[in-house]
């Protein structure tokens, strides 16, 4: 490995056929404009504006009074920053919504972890054709869109007397997180060495002990990805709460935000403050556990 | 060996491995099928059963209360002649097409760019991923306020793009364009991540060899990066197509299907019929179309492009 310059991405290393490879290895000798990919950098800056401007407008708007916002428009710099909008939101039922969302998120992540670990374990370790069939059922599940089956889910939840309860959200949300999680965990578990299973079995360990002492510890990264994925799905879910709940006591954050539209009407800064507050918890996770969050976001497995 | 960081994409499922069977204790320490039963029942109840039920319900009349009663093929003949449904199908297909055309090139280029290990790229990509942290409701509300014709950003930008009054959401084409734009803005970061992961897996030696052969940046991109990203492109496209066909939250918040029915894509039409007009039987017929199309398209794409490809890309990252 001679050079820092060779990047996996096509970067500004284009050079004529006459260049000798030796020159590449010395970074310092190359002028700045050769080392940087100018067009790509330019494109990235444009994209920064496309992504950054709305996010800036989001945060800046919340720091202004309503009149200031209505007068000067979304992009102006807040003259006298105020936290009044955040006060307004916190004085509303925001906190209750937050608690409800937290309950749904934690419960759903717990259910998904337990079920996908046991299913993954069976798929990987059971020597029958049936276990492969099970796996295929979950692969098919990947393709079932929740939106399309919401009416029967509504019927089932009503018949189970779970309409307008947090459990009524938790169960279907968890079910629709399962396929991706089974896929991730069976991938992680396949990587565990056959010999480790065998030596534990020789020691007389049953499947439960093997799961607990071997599989779970060695699948920790996959399990954390699965947990984050399921938590995000529950945290951000809108459709299931929208359809399966109605009262104030069971309202989760996404649905609460949707209601704020009516409540705050033209008080856009207050509405946006609620939006910001709903993102803060995930943002904190992003700061401290970026890799797990990103893996969880993509629903891809446990590096 | 702990959980390895590079996964072997072609590792086979553990069935029929004769060598270890020879060791004698075939079933020792292995879990029985019973271990999967709770999870399987749970999944069946809330996902598989509803998928079958939605088809059954499409042959019934049901107002949301009481029990559904069969009414033959009434819903289906109505569906056939429903102009809003026809328009919805067209809109859904256009949304799928446009959002694929907008998202794929941008996500691909930014993903490949952000795969570089330079500090500037790392910092910028950390910002690029921020939209992923918000729920689609939060982003929908953000864009609804930015697109407010009186007080939003659009009041300033509108005149540049042909909406002098800034009333983008009030015009049929403008509202549809807004949906495509917001969907892309929201989901490009996810696909950027996929492409970043994919690009980082391309062996460096390929680029070294190309460099020695005198291939420039552009040539390297088309001869190495693109072909190597084939599986990622497939995965990303499948996710995009299914995502666009089932797109719902943002439409409800941004346009409520309007103006008129000009952004009433199929999932919105279904929601509106089922949970606003309480014609659940008819809504189930719409939903059945959605199930068949969305499931069919994703299975078809996966089949055509190689089933293993998608799995190994997903597992291999």
Automatic annotation (TrEMBL), chain B:
<comment type="similarity">
    <text>Belongs to the binding-protein-dependent transport system permease family.</text>
</comment>
<dbReference type="InterPro" id="IPR035906">
    <property type="entry name" value="MetI-like_sf"/>
</dbReference>
<keyword id="KW-0813">Transport</keyword>
<feature type="transmembrane region" description="Helical">
    <location>
        <begin position="175"/>
        <end position="195"/>
    </location>
</feature>
<feature type="transmembrane region" description="Helical">
    <location>
        <begin position="89"/>
        <end position="110"/>
    </location>
</feature>
<feature type="transmembrane region" description="Helical">
    <location>
        <begin position="33"/>
        <end position="59"/>
    </location>
</feature>
<keyword id="KW-0812">Transmembrane</keyword>
<feature type="transmembrane region" description="Helical">
    <location>
        <begin position="233"/>
        <end position="254"/>
    </location>
</feature>
<feature type="transmembrane region" description="Helical">
    <location>
        <begin position="122"/>
        <end position="143"/>
    </location>
</feature>
<dbReference type="Pfam" id="PF00528">
    <property type="entry name" value="BPD_transp_1"/>
</dbReference>
<feature type="region of interest" description="Disordered">
    <location>
        <begin position="1"/>
        <end position="29"/>
    </location>
</feature>
<keyword id="KW-1003">Cell membrane</keyword>
<dbReference type="InterPro" id="IPR000515">
    <property type="entry name" value="MetI-like"/>
</dbReference>
<feature type="domain" description="ABC transmembrane type-1">
    <location>
        <begin position="89"/>
        <end position="301"/>
    </location>
</feature>
<dbReference type="InterPro" id="IPR051393">
    <property type="entry name" value="ABC_transporter_permease"/>
</dbReference>
<keyword id="KW-0472">Membrane</keyword>
<protein>
    <submittedName>
        <fullName>Sugar ABC transporter permease</fullName>
    </submittedName>
</protein>
<feature type="compositionally biased region" description="Low complexity">
    <location>
        <begin position="16"/>
        <end position="25"/>
    </location>
</feature>
<keyword id="KW-1133">Transmembrane helix</keyword>
<feature type="transmembrane region" description="Helical">
    <location>
        <begin position="280"/>
        <end position="302"/>
    </location>
</feature>
């Amino acid at each position: 490995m001679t050079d820092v310059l060779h990047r996996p991405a096509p970067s500004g290393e284009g050079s004529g056929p006459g260049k000798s490879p030796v020159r590449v290895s010395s970074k310092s000798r190359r002028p700045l404009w050769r080392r940087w990919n100018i067009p790509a950098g330019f494109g990235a800056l444009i994209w920064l504006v496309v992504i950054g401007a709305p996010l800036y407008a989001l945060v800046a708007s919340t720091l202004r009074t309503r009149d200031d916002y209505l007068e000067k428009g979304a992009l102006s710099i807040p003259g006298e920053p105020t936290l009044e909008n955040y006060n307004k939101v916190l004085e509303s039922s925001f906190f209750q919504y937050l608690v409800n969302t937290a309950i749904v998120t934690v419960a759903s992540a717990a259910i998904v972890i337990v079920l996908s670990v046991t299913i993954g374990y069976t798929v990987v370790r059971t020597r029958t054709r049936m276990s492969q069939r099970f796996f295929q059922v979950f692969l098919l599940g990947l393709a079932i869109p929740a939106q399309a089956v919401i009416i029967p889910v509504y019927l089932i939840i009503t018949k189970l007397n779970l309409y307008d309860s947090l459990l009524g959200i938790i169960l279907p949300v968890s079910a629709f997180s399962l396929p991706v999680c089974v896929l991730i965990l069976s991938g992680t578990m396949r990587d565990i060495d056959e010999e480790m299973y065998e030596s534990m079995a020789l020691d007389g360990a049953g499947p439960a002990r093997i799961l607990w002492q071997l599989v779970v510890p060695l699948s920790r990264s996959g399990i954390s990805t699965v947990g984050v994925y399921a938590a995000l799905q529950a945290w951000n879910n809108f459709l299931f709460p929208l359809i399966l709940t109605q009262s104030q006591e069971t309202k989760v954050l996404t649905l609460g935000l949707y209601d704020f539209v009516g409540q705050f009407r033209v008080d856009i800064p207050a509405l946006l403050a609620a939006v910001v507050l709903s993102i803060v918890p995930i943002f904190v996770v992003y700061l401290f556990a970026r890799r797990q969050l990103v893996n969880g976001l993509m629903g891809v497995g446990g590096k | 060996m702990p959980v390895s960081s590079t996964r072997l994409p072609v590792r086979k499922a553990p069935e029929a491995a004769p060598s270890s069977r020879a060791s004698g204790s075939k079933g020792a320490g292995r879990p029985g099928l019973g271990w999967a039963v709770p999870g399987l029942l749970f999944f069946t109840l809330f996902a598989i059963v509803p998928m079958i039920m939605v088809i059954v319900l499409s042959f019934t009349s049901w107002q949301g209360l009481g029990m559904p009663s069969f009414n033959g093929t009434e819903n289906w003949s109505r569906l056939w002649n429903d102009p809003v449904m026809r328009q919805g199908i067209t809109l859904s297909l256009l949304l799928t097409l446009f959002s694929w055309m907008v998202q794929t090139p941008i996500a691909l280029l930014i993903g490949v760019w952000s795969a570089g290990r330079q500090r500037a790229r790392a910092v910028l990509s950390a910002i690029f991923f921020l939209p992923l942290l918000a729920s689609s409701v939060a982003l929908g509300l953000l864009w609804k306020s930015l697109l407010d014709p009186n007080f939003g950003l659009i009041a300033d930008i509108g005149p540049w793009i042909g909406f002098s009054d800034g009333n983008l959401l009030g015009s049929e084409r403008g509202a549809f364009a807004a949906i495509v734009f917001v969907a892309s803005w929201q989901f490009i970061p996810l696909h950027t991540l996929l492409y970043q992961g994919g690009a980082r897996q391309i062996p460096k030696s390929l680029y070294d060899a190309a460099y020695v052969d005198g291939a420039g940046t552009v040539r390297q991109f088309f001869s190495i990066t693109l072909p190597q990203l084939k599986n990622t492109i497939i995965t990303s496209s499948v996710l995009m197509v299914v995502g666009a066909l089932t797109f719902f939250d943002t439409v409800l918040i941004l346009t409520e299907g309007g103006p008129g029915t000009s952004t009433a894509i199929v999932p919105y039409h279904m929601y509106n019929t089922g949970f606003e007009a309480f014609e659940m039987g008819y809504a189930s017929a719409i939903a059945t179309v959605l199930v068949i199309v969305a499931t069919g398209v994703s299975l078809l794409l996966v089949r055509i492009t190689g089933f293993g490809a998608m799995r190994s890309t997903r597992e291999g990252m």
